[in-house]
Amino acid sequence: MNSMDDNLECIAGVSREEDFPILSRRIDDNPLIYLDSAATSLQPRQVVSEMSRYYLEISANIHRGKHYLSEEVSTDYEEGRYKVAQFLGCAGNEVVFVRNTTEALNLVAAGLDIGKDDIVVACTDSHHSNYLPWLDRAAVKLVRVGAQGEVDLEHYRELLKLSPRVVALTHCSNVSGLYAPLEEMTRMAKEAGALVVVDAAQSIPHRRLNVGRLGIDFLAFSAHKMLGPTGIGVLFGKQSHLRDMNPVILGGGMVDWVDTSGYRTRKIPHKFEAGTPHIAGVYGLVAAVKYLEKIGFDRLEAHDLALSKLLFSEAEKRDYLVVAAPGTHADRCAILSFKMKGTDDMGNIARMLSDSFGIMCRSGHMCAQPYVDYSFNGDILRASCYLYNNRRDIVNLFQALDQLQLVVS
Amino acid sequence: MIDDFGDNFEAARKEITYAYENVRFFRKHMDEAKLSPEDIRTPGDFGRIPPTEKKHYRKNFPLDVLAKGYTLKDDRLTRFPSAGTTGERLMTVELGLVYMKRAIETMSVYPLIHTIFNRQPLNQVRYAPPNCSDVECANPYSTMQDRLLRDGTLVLAVYHDLLTTPEVILKQNIEEVEKHQPQMYFIDSTHLAFLMRYMRKHGYTPPNGPLLSSYTPCTDVSRRQILENFGRDVHFSEVVAMSEMGYMAMECPVGGLHINTKSYHLEFICNGRPAEPGEMAELYITTLDNGCIPHLRYRTGDVYRFFDSQCLCGHNFPLIRIEGRLRNFLFRNGEIVLTPKELDGIVGAPRWMDMYKMKQTDENDFLFNFIPNEKYEENNEKYIRDELLLKLGPGADLVMEKVDYIPTERSGKFLACVSSEGEKMYSKGFCL
């Protein structure tokens, strides 16, 4: 166990070596430093162990039989749904298991019966997954961002006067790490009569959200950004909306009755879960939620904030860096996106950070190309932290950048 | 132990002989213990028979637990499935008449209910966890006719995960109750309290009739809500039943819980010995009916205290108090710190609370969720926290959370107290 007195060691309750054995790996003698958690977090042993338990000891399919294992796995799977519901502050039948955030948001966009005459207000810093499904079907209006990357609430207020059907919010930008004022924006959207759809992929690993109290209509996130496995995600939807929506995928497991003239779908949420789902993924997701709850979201948030401050204060000291939404006082998580002056090839920088220093960062457009192109006019590099990161990881990143800038500028 | 053993010891001996001669599992069970029915001569010998457990009846069903001469096609037999959770499911078949006799005998502790129950025809309503797996068969499309049983029982529709039951079904529940005009209700108290909240909100008072509360232990919070809606003079009785036995105990008109010692041979076992009055003990049951599936020294996993005092109602069935299922007890350092019944005593029946659930998630970690209602004021729950911390002991991490939703168990039942440590202790073979 590590202490967390200054909030910048590995968070209390987490053993880097025992829980995250991957952090003991070395890349050509350099200890591995993982700063790509906004793409995919590491999975602790507890999560992998639960998934292994499913494959090695249970293995059966859900809701498809009466044998012992079938009942055991069905119970675990549905109790997993209840666990997620309690985590979100909603009811069990408001949780739909999907592959990821992208699938969840597509399911909502496709299920809402919207057309090109409908206005959808989205965020400029949206991930493609909360932009393209709307762009494809509706008239999308983007809320401008201010000079520091923050949401322009005045512009947002103006757009709400257009009576949008949907407001598609990005709770935390995967580029700038800035949090949108979710409570305020939700309230404003509800006053305008819009449905509120929230992409919480980047926020839910760090902050506890209560969808019931916030009054959100839909919320989506992926397990793999919160210590869980890939291939499993969650869509929360209010019961009344889910009941009215038609499923996009049809097949086994989502019907009560089928004959030659038609079919009757199962009740929510099962009508949205056709085919055999990622059962092991649900075991992993539940283990991840338990792991995070055990640490406590107060601690997670404090640790994230401390890392964020360190990232941005170190970035501020370096004039060779151009940073997305600079400033250490903003409400943000520990995500730093930047360019280095003198070079456009941030992919090359990412490769050198990895191979020469053992530091894993993301490069590219971060699946938010309109925003990244608007802010940087090209590729960027992103360092993102999570509960297993500490001060040393960040110091090493900046020391490596200091060395690289001498040869690339 | 209960001192009317003499009354049914001979019946118990006959059951042993019957089981030994007619049920392959028991012959093997007794042979392995190097016992024959002739060895059981005195009540003291009875304890030499190794206890039987749920797994024995599950593993040996049907071939080795059905008595000779019975098949599953026998029209006289009724199926009593137990949904169970975590692999504890069980199918029991028994002569319908045997269960009926046990029920009538048990109901003798509440003469008015006993009388009404024997009336025919009798319009009854059942509102309880649905006996299905939810996903495959429960749906909101069934009609009243679909759910009307031959004996006049109307089964009201409800979702497996109780609090997710949609308004359309709750409205349907009211319409059907009004149409059916029940004279008696068989209910799960958590379920009915939930329906009561909806009914009260819509200004509906259901027809008066005795209420038999079973399926899961009745919390004081649920009882309060039910009585508030039906009125304090309604006949409300908690019934203790198991799907593999039927009715076992019932609350009398003055509130005493009496266990039926006429239909069963009962043992209250503590540390492997017969318990003293007032002592916490696990109930072992032996059936006496020479029926389809005899049960010998069956470990119920349920913990009781029995008392040797006489109840004011005058009935001679012994008074008991049910502490709960051993696997739901809260444990610390291998010791019981709180039973579900003791927990319920601490919580009481506050007017500001609709539901609660305590969950022990680890040795020191306890989560108490509760659903407040409009009467709730900040910090109302303080007395519960203070008392719980006292009982749980130093180092206990108790989180109390106000929530809008608490899921049921996957079995469809709502348990107000569950425990990972209790599960561990139970599966390790912890016995009282």
Detailed description of the structure:
The complex is a heterodimer of chains A (409) and B (432). In chain A, the strands form five sheets. In chain A, strands 4-10-9-8-7-5-6 form a seven-stranded mixed beta sheet, sandwiched between helices. In chain A, strands 13-14-17-16 form a four-stranded antiparallel beta sheet. With 409 residues, chain A is an alpha/beta fold. Mean pLDDT of chain A is 93; it is low at 1-7. The longest helix of chain A is centred in the N-terminal third of the chain and has 21 residues, at 68-88. Chain A is globular and about 70 Å long. Chain A has helices spanning 16-19, 45-58, 68-88, 101-111, 132-135, 153-160, 182-191, 211-214, 239-244, 279-295, 297-316, 346-357, 369-376, 391-408, and strands at 26-27, 30-31, 33-34, 95-98, 119-123, 139-143, 166-170, 195-199, 218-222, 233-237, 255-259, 262-265, 321-323, 335-340, 359-360, 362-364, 380-384. Chain A contains 14 helices and 17 strands. With 432 residues, chain B is an alpha/beta fold. Chain B has a domain at 329-427: GMP Synthetase, Chain A, domain 3 (2-Layer Sandwich). Chain B has twelve helices and 20 strands. In chain B, the strands form four sheets. Chain B has a twelve-stranded mixed beta sheet with strand order 4-3-5-6-7-8-9-14-13-12-10-11, with helices on both faces. Chain A binds chain B through residues 63, 68, 71-72, 74-75, 78-79, 82, 85-86, 89-94, 212, 239, 243, 256, 264, 266-267, 270, 290, 294, and chain B through 85-87, 89, 133-136, 138-141, 159, 161, 163-164, 166, 361, 365, 369, 403-407, 410.
